[in-house]
């Protein structure tokens, strides 16, 4: 065990906040921090920068304005993109204009590129090894072919962001597929307690390399 604790910074939207779970119950952040502690045999201190409704643009702006501190961070998890696509789907339903979806996807992917590059650049300045883990999107509307298509297109882009050796994608999509009814809360959007455990499992499966 080293002298200093591992600092784990969780960034993102309502999924990182644990919206949809029973009040005060553990979230994937807690489960993953515990897994880090077991794997590294070191103390882990976690902090959360997340907000309900956050889009990739919101995360980008928070990083650009230094609202999110990365000082001494060794591990980052990121949940973002779901609200971008949900907002675009709602606008599409009103207009039936597919260009809305294409524009939203393009903007969202540009933001994700910027976010991952920013995280990689800043964590690379730290003296120790670092890990960036991006949680891909599960599909809360599995019965809608259009939703399934756009989620997978976005996830394909996320995979393209993970070419840097320290960046890996946690595959929540595959672990949620076919189990949505069991893993989502009553609102049909957010993970319940069991869903939060599954996200932590997806993160652990990317490997812990500190």
CA radius of gyration is 17 Å
Strand content: 5-15%
- Uncertain stretches: none
Which shape, going by the Cα principal axes? globular
Strand order of the largest sheet: 2-1-3-4-5
Specify the CATH architecture.
3-Layer(aba) Sandwich
Our count of helices gives 9
State the end-to-end distance. 12 Å
Encode the helix/strand succession as letters.
EHHEHEHHEHEHHH
User: Structural class, please?
Assistant: alpha/beta
For this structure, what is the CATH homologous superfamily? SGNH hydrolase
Q: What number of domains?
A: 1
Name of the level-1 CATH class:
Alpha Beta
- Could you give the count of β-strands? 5
Look at the structure and give the mean pLDDT: 92
- Kindly state the percentage of residues in helix: 40-55%
Most strands sheet:
5 strands, parallel
- The CATH topology, please? Rossmann fold
Description:
The protein contains 9 helices and 5 strands. It has a 5-stranded parallel beta sheet with strand order 2-1-3-4-5, sandwiched between helices. 49% of the residues lie in helices and 14% in strands. The chain is of the alpha/beta class and 210 residues long. It has a single domain (6-204), classed as Rossmann fold, CATH 3.40.50.1110. The longest helix is centred in the middle third of the chain and has 25 residues, at 99-123. The protein starts with 5 loop residues before the first strand and ends in a 6-residue tail after the last helix. It is globular, with a radius of gyration of 17 Å.
């Amino acid at each position: 065990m080293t002298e200093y604790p591992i600092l784990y910074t969780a960034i993102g939207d309502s999924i990182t906040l644990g919206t949809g779970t029973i009040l005060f119950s553990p979230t994937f952040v807690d489960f993953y921090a515990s897994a880090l502690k077991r794997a590294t045999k070191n103390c882990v201190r976690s902090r959360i920068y997340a907000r309900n409704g956050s889009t990739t643009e919101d995360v980008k702006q928070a990083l650009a304005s230094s609202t999110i501190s990365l000082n001494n961070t060794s591990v980052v998890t990121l949940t973002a993109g779901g609200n971008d696509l949900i907002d675009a789907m709602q606008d599409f339903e009103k207009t039936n204009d597919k260009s809305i979806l294409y524009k939203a996807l393009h903007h969202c992917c540009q933001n994700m590129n910027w976010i991952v590059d920013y995280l990689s650049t800043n964590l690379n300045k730290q003296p120790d090894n670092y890990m960036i883990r991006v949680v891909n999107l599960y599909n809360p509307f599995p019965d809608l072919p259009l939703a399934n298509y756009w989620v997978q297109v976005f996830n394909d882009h996320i995979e393209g962001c993970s070419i840097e050796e320290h960046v890996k994608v946690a595959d929540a999509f595959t672990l949620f597929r076919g189990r949505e009814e069991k893993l989502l809360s009553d609102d049909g959007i957010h993970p319940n307690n069991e869903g939060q455990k599954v996200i932590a499992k997806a993160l652990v499966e990317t490997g812990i390399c500190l």
